Amino acid sequence: GVITHTSTVTTPYRGAGRVPVGIGRKRMRVVVTGGAGFVGSHLVDKLIKRGDDVIVIDNFFTGRKENVMHHFGDHRFELIRHDVVEPILLEVDQIYHLACPASPVHYKYNPVKTIKTNVMGTLNMLGLAKRIGARFLLTSTSEVYGDPLEHPQKETYWGNVNPIGVRSCYDEGKRTAETLTMDYHRGADVEVRIARIFNTYGPRMCLDDGRVVSNFVAQAIRKQPMTVYGDGKQTRSFQYVSDLVDGLMALMDGEHVGPFNLGNPGEFTMLELAEVVKEVIDPSATIEFRANTADDPHKRKPDISRAKELLNWEPKVPLRDGLPLMVNDFRNRILNEDEGKGN
Ligand code: NAD
Ligand code: UDP
Ligand code: UDP
């Protein structure tokens, strides 16, 4: 017969009941910083499912053990309580760097800490990537575009950002993190990937993070009025978390550095969002207007042509299908909170 040579390496299937590693794909050791948070924990679920070894680094500022507890006891999963502002030594193949408070309420709580996390945390993870030759992915944000003067936003847009505002610790922090990432790439040959994530929602979002989707959903469940800030005509584009996780993994495992916008281009005003929440959660839900916060971007919508073309990725879950998927998780947690208060 003909002997064919392939350059692929397969890892033997280890242990019963686990997902075998796909033919041709090396079993990876992966670090997820911020892996006990909302997005991170969903990413961890998918990495474990595909057969990788996963180390989560988290300081539990906004993350919760409950988000990853279902992996305790799995020898491929490790949870390290660690602050990325401090150096750490590990041996891995890939680093997904998510650690950073993401909602305005949390990142404004201690702005200097937010900057340290973005700058020193990212520096440490890049130093780690350099030392061990790991591939590094930064989860940046659509906030690097600031209050955008270009609509929808392409990756080539440089942004309209206030350097001295109350959001600057986050958006300027992420801009610096992107700069560091590119400088390690150019200067030290570190393999890097940059994702610019647009507003994402789903189960395990913090109940009290003040983000609009979590607020409206929790308010509708609690039979409280949904708080619309300003005139409610500002727009956002909302992406379901499983779409984001697919995009992050396609980016990490693909050949392109980016930056890539990862978001759902479906654009809604806050008033329209309130309508959708009303439709899918409680037809009797009401709204209430509140003053808006400073530096609130008026509109935001990703142009995702680059990710479609180069990563072969686009979101699959529209808002009306995604919102119902987070309702049970929110109901259960709100119920637990209420029971806790009664004790
Ligand atoms: P999250 O707050 O749920 O998760 C962040 C995680 O990082 C938490 O588990 C937190 O405890 C941890 N963390 C924070 N500071 C840390 C530190 N110094 N050391 C170690 N761990 C630390 O937020 P998320 O929505 O899951 O966001 C994850 C990443 O995605 C963030 O980098 C965020 O900026 C980015 N992002 C998210 C969105 C979104 O809509 N969710 C949008 C744009 C960008
Ligand atoms: N670093 C780390 N783990 C490592 C290697 C580096 O946390 O395995 C940290 C290191 O402490 C430093 C940062 O990453 O603060 C940047 O490291 P690099 O080697 O690029 O710079 P230098 O140490 O020369 O300043
Ligand atoms: N928002 C709102 N009601 C809320 C919380 C937020 O109308 O209870 C508005 C907020 O003013 C902003 C939009 O919703 O215009 C998105 O806010 P969020 O904090 O979710 O995300 P970001 O501003 O970071 O995009």
From TrEMBL:
| Top-level taxon | Eukaryota
For this protein, the Enzyme Commission number is 4.1.1.35
List localization entries.
Golgi apparatus, Golgi stack membrane
Cofactor(s), by name:
NAD(+)
Q: Which keywords does the record carry?
A: Decarboxylase, Golgi apparatus, Lyase, Membrane, NAD, Transmembrane, Transmembrane helix
Task: Identify a single GO molecular function assigned to this protein.
Answer: UDP-glucuronate decarboxylase activity
Named in its record, the pathway it takes part in is:
Nucleotide-sugar biosynthesis; UDP-alpha-D-xylose biosynthesis; UDP-alpha-D-xylose from UDP-alpha-D-glucuronate: step 1/1
Stated membrane topology is:
Single-pass type II membrane protein
Task: Please classify the protein's predominant subcellular localization into one broad category.
Answer: Golgi
Instruction: Tell me which Gene Ontology terms the entry assigns under biological process.
Output: D-xylose metabolic process
Q: Where do the coiled-coil regions begin and end? A: none
All copies of domain NAD(P)-binding, residue ranges: 32-324
Q: GO CC terms on record?
A: Golgi cisterna membrane
Family, per entry: Belongs to the NAD(P)-dependent epimerase/dehydratase family. UDP-glucuronic acid decarboxylase subfamily.
Functional summary from the UniProt entry: Catalyzes the NAD-dependent decarboxylation of UDP-glucuronic acid to UDP-xylose. Necessary for the biosynthesis of the core tetrasaccharide in glycosaminoglycan biosynthesis.
Q: What is this protein called?
A: UDP-glucuronate decarboxylase
Q: Which organism is it from?
A: Solanum stoloniferum
Q: Which residues of the full protein are shown?
A: 93 to 435 of 435
